[in-house]
Backbone:
């Protein structure tokens, strides 16, 4: 969603990075560019004005003049003030002191209330809670049935009955207490636009169940209208927070940057996809970092921790370094990565990834092609790819719907990766360093083995275009700058295998 805005900020900051001194006119030029970028992103005018004022007060004052690197300091100021506009800190959802915790979901029709009610229920389950959902949307056909279908997917019960919405909400609260459920999520009806009837109904439901939290579900694609909707609902319901949906869309993102300052209520949760797991608490600092092109490492780590089992990951790493890694292991690791979400989203969370790489579309179709090739192999072929000859390659290509060339590429790159990591497994050991202190090294040198392997000044690594989704050589990656990996068998200082 924020790609265009992120590109604009990158262009703005590229002009101030590395400058030894920034004059007041330089700061004004940066602020003018920032104002235009935010307005083009459909951010509320008052929000842009306030943000620009706060940045200028800090940028032309004593704080910037004392900085060793004014260019970096102004980037820091912009990030901090952008984080403040987004809400400052993550909203803490604290359970009610006397269960159940009651959550009222409000919003216009089509904003995603029903789906996000289920997503919120799944989130509460991860926190160790026992939620129940109440279907009080009796206006939209099949709304309750949709909620029940979603409830079955996450194993959460749904209560509803054929009466009026206020009575259903009140009865749902009674049912939750009878079942011992400690969280009640009430899905309400919406309209295509705000009207008196909608507001009166949702107000009556709120009075009947006295919610611990009232969340407004807002479609981020609606831009400035989202802020207007939030203001109207807040006047009626006293909102506690906003759930922003479709953050994975291609809208300009103005709603996310405007709603906190205009309405005065934080964004509590963000929905970043269609799947029920594509939902989490909203972190203003992390979004600000992503907008400014700094990645989102913390979210990436959290996603990996949810998906990967530590023991399995360590076992796979050990097999990889020992040269025992098979195509079955590779397939398993790839499937774990898929669970973390779209690969394009994961690339967006990584700091320092070039724009050209982020712009490459890597979907399930590309990953599925690799899976199909591996699934078309026998168990023996997956364990020993060297068994695959011409006839086997043709059979695998036919079974996977790919070409023999694509099968060959995958096998060759897998062999290179396995050979490479097996050789890397020697580093950090006495054997990998060419022997212990005082013994002859591999080349006959006395003293500590494994001396300089490149000419002074470091290896000159030729730049290579990245090929996706194929595996990439490790040349040029951080940590491997001093290695010439073009011929794996002739690396000096590596153990004989």
Residues:
């Amino acid at each position: 969603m924020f790609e265009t805005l992120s590109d604009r900020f990158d262009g703005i900051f590229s002009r101030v990075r590395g400058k030894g001194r920034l004059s007041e006119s330089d700061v004004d030029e940066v602020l003018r560019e920032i104002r235009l970028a935010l307005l083009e992103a459909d951010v509320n005018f008052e929000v842009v004005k306030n943000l620009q004022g706060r940045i200028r007060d800090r940028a032309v004052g004593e704080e910037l003049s004392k900085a060793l690197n004014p260019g970096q300091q102004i980037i820091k100021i912009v990030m901090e003030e952008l984080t403040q506009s987004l809400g400052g800190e993550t909203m803490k959802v604290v359970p009610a002191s006397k269960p159940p915790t009651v959550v009222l979901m409000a919003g216009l029709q089509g904003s995603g209330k029903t789906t996000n009610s289920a997503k919120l229920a799944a989130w509460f389950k991860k926190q160790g809670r026992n939620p129940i959902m109440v279907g009080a949307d009796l206006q939209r056909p099949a709304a309750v049935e949709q909620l029940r279908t979603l409830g079955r997917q996450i194993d959460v019960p749904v209560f509803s009955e054929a009466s009026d919405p206020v009575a259903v909400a009140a009865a749902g609260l009674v049912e939750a207490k009878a079942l011992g459920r400690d969280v009640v999520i009430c899905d309400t009806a919406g309209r295509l636009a705000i009207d008196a009837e909608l507001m009166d109904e949702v107000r009556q439901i709120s009075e009947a169940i006295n919610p611990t939290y009232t969340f407004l579900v807002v479609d981020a694609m609606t831009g400035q209208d989202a802020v207007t909707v939030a203001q109207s609902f807040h006047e009626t319901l006293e909102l506690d927070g906003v759930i922003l949906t479709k953050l994975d869309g291609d809208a300009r993102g103005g709603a996310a940057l405007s709603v906190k300052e205009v309405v005065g209520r934080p964004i509590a949760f963000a929905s970043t996809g269609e799947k029920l797991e594509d939902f989490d608490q909203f972190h203003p600092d992390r979004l600000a970092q992503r907008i400014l092109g700094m990645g989102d490492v913390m979210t990436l780590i959290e996603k990996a921790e949810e998906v990967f089992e530590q023991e399995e990951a360590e076992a796979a790493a050990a097999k990889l370094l020992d040269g025992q890694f098979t195509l079955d292991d590779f397939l398993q690791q790839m499937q774990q990565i898929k669970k973390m979400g779209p690969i394009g989203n994961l690339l967006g969370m990584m700091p320092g990834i070039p724009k050209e790489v982020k712009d490459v579309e890597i979907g399930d179709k590309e990953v599925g092609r690799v899976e199909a090739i591996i699934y078309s192999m026998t168990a023996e072929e997956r364990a020993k790819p060297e068994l695959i000859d011409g006839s086997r390659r043709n059979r695998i290509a036919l079974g996977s719907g790919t070409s023999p060339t694509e099968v060959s590429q995958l096998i060759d790159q897998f062999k290179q990766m396995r050979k490479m990591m097996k050789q890397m497994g020697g580093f950090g050991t006495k054997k990998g360093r060419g022997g212990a202190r005082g013994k002859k090294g591999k080349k006959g040198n006395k003293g500590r083995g494994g001396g300089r392997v490149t000419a002074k000044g470091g290896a000159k690594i030729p730049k290579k275009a990245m090929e996706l989704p194929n595996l990439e050589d490790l040349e040029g990656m951080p940590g491997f700058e001093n290695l010439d990996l073009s011929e794996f068998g002739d690396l000096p200082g590596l153990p004989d295998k």
